[in-house]
Amino acid sequence: MNSFAEWLKKPVKLVDKTHEQKALARQQQLTKPPGSLGQLENLAVKIASLQASEIPDLTHVHITVYAADHGVMAEGVSAFPQSVTAAMIRNFASGGAAINVLAQELTAKLDVINVGTVDTLEDIPGVLDKRIDAGTANFCDGPAMTEHQCQQAILIGRDNVLSDIENTQLYIAGEMGIGNTSTATALASAILKCDPADLVGPGTGLDLQSIQHKLTVIQRALKLHADKLEGDILTLLQSLGGFEIAAMVGAYLSCAKQGVPVLIDGFISTTAALTAEKIQPGCKNWFIYSHQSAEPGHKVVLDALDAKPLLKLDMRLGEGSGAAVAVPLLRQACLLHNGMATFEQANISKGDK
Ligand SMILES: Cc1cc2ncn([C@H]3O[C@H](COP(=O)(O)O)[C@@H](O)[C@H]3O)c2cc1C
Ligand SMILES: O=C(O)c1cccnc1
Question: Are residues 138 and 29 in the same domain?
């Protein structure tokens, strides 16, 4: 038995029900009509139970952006050229991307990992070079990855979570990879056995005619890999995924096994979350969903996870940006939970009904 298979078998950590009960009871004691803080109450209870703590705390947030290129770009499926993936890695390193601005404001730890760009980048301070290959293969011609490459990518995500687990109170995986809305659409359609026409969208900004072309490309890929649709999820990930998507799957599996709360971002990240949940049911107990992006496939994937995202801001960026935007809400839910007085402390009558 190799170490990958051993690790994969490790169970997902069970969520602490005692702390859930304690947090629910505390919410009933706080000086407000029960339920009046709406979803902020559920959030605080969820974070308290995931952290197994009476004082949930989100001071230390670990954000990792996984970047990689996609072979399906040979079919012309994005409004932007493939070289933008590498260019954005440079931008992450110099602090100019949206996620840099947000991570700085949150005082979050921000890692950037190159999991496999076509461009061989020089050593860039602040970027972890874990290039598996020069992008994935075109899944219209064959599997996107070899089995070994897929495992390598998963282990990169696993190890990133473990690298700072002692300090991580919340983990966010972001992605950068031109063409990856096509990859996520193909993978999610295969996993959910649904029509890719219900998921496909503009990504970075395709017009209607180009979206139609993107759909025919994805349909071709799904036809080519049709024999794997009844097979296991890891094979689907290997056939239709991307390096950064597989790395996010590994990170989510790692969080669920170790008991680290995860805040999920947009369409591509949520497709990785769905993949992790299908590989190991129960992973999703560790997930909180930040937002619903404008990419149509995101709603389909969120629904498949029974997810109720906190925000709907028509964002469609990725990089972990939607999740980062939601962190202040989570922090405020915790602050209210921890800091408000109880009826007893404030000597206020609780009311009878
Ligand atoms: C400058 C720039 C920065 C980005 N940051 C995230 N994405 C997002 O857009 C890409 C997916 O869209 P598509 O499948 O249409 O290529 C991914 O890289 C995703 O992270 C970006 C895209 C661009 C152009
Ligand atoms: O939903 C997302 O995260 C998204 C949508 C379009 C392009 N990139 C990311």
Answer: no
Residue 1 pLDDT exceeds 60: no
Q: How many residues does the chain have?
A: 353
Q: Nearest C-alpha to atom 5 of ligand 2 is from which residue?
A: 316
Ligand nearest to the CA of residue 316, numbered in listed order = 2
Given the residues 175, 277, 295, 319, the one annotated as active site:
319
Residue range of the domain that includes 181? 61-332
Q: Is the ipTM of this complex over 0.85?
A: yes
Whether residue 85 has its Cβ less than 6 Å from ligand 2 = no
CA 108 → CA 20, 62, 94, 290, 319, distances in Å?
Answer: 26, 6, 16, 16, 14
Three-state DSSP class for residue 5: helix
- Indicate the number of domains in the chain: 2
Query: What is the Cα–Cα distance from 348 to 13, expressed in whole angstroms?
Result: 40
328 and 344 inside one domain: no
- The two tokens of residue 59 are 């001071």
pTM: 0.98
